[in-house]
User: What shape does this take?
Amino acid sequence: MTRTLSMESYLLADADSVVARARQGDETALAALYRAFEVPVYHLARRICRTTEDAEDVLQETFFEVCRSIGRYREEGSLWGWIRTIAASKALMRLRRNKYRDTDELHDELTGHRKEETHLRMDLEAALERLPEVSRAVVWLHDVEGYTHDEIAGMMGKTPSFSKSQLARAHARLRRWLGEEVTA
Amino acid sequence: MTHLPMETLVGLREAGNEPGDTAAREHLNGCALCSAELERLHQRVARLKSLPALRPSRDRWPTVRERVRAERKRHRARFAGLAGLAAAASVALAVGVSTLRQPETELTPAEIEQAMVRSRVLESALDRIDPESRVLDGRTAGIAQELEDRIARVDRELEMAELMERQSRDAQLLRLWRERVGLLDALVDVHVTRASHVGL
Assistant: This one.
């Protein structure tokens, strides 16, 4: 939480005033919110979604929702935390709408990487991009954004065990693709 | 020697103590390979967190702003008196109550669709009242705000429910849409009552 609060004050120095004006429908304040959080929202969306187009749609949907719902923001948590949850929810909705591939096995079958992967060594960006959508979403939400398995499970409509399992499998893959396997 | 699987290593980073964590930590203390693996895991996560920020190629604010403006305009344009409002709300209330009393034994997508339609009817009724452009007394405003908050929470739950598996999703969606209809109905009632009090 400390991280999100400091990020918020860094992005939006006069957050209280901006939020108060945004609640009154002040377009300048709404635009200020957009400008402050545009990059972190897009960054999160792009890490979860497969394409830049999907991520930009999520960015748009997130801020439309923020503009509509800012009057309901109760300041119980950080502003960034509130916006981030909307963004994560929209990104996961987008995955579902795109009929994401739910199993690693099917993903391997479709992309045809299984046999060659032991010989590959790629950078972290490429390896992350190559993970199945759901696994990548879990890695990002848990390891980078700091959501718990319970929270991720709630957002995905799955169980915490599912989230834990996806995270472990994703890390096993990343380790292999990055050439980080430890040999005895 | 059996080394720790990735699921255990990943779990060791979590706060709290899961069953088996104590044994896993004891193993870590005596196993250089597993310790190295855990350290690599920490480093990998640190590298994930430090990946450069990605930026959108297009400015989406003009599109968002236009959508917000269009929605406000629609709200204003829909205000066309309250003559038919009470009737619309009453019909919606009657239908909503009868739906709420139905047993939930036979769930079909049609039932969910029915609840969604009723929700839209009530949304339209609210649009016609145009509550945002009117002044409410403190008590009424408090009740209306509470109902709007609860509707917002239901909307968030509906988004989550959309992500669930089919079997459990339909029952959850139906329950939430019915709850939404009930809340909207109450909100319409609040505004209609307030409107009649001020002689509109």
Summary: The two ends of chain B are 82 Å apart (CA to CA). Confidence is low (pLDDT under 50) at residues 78-92, 195-200 of chain B. The CA atoms of residues 64 and 70 of chain B lie 10 Å apart.
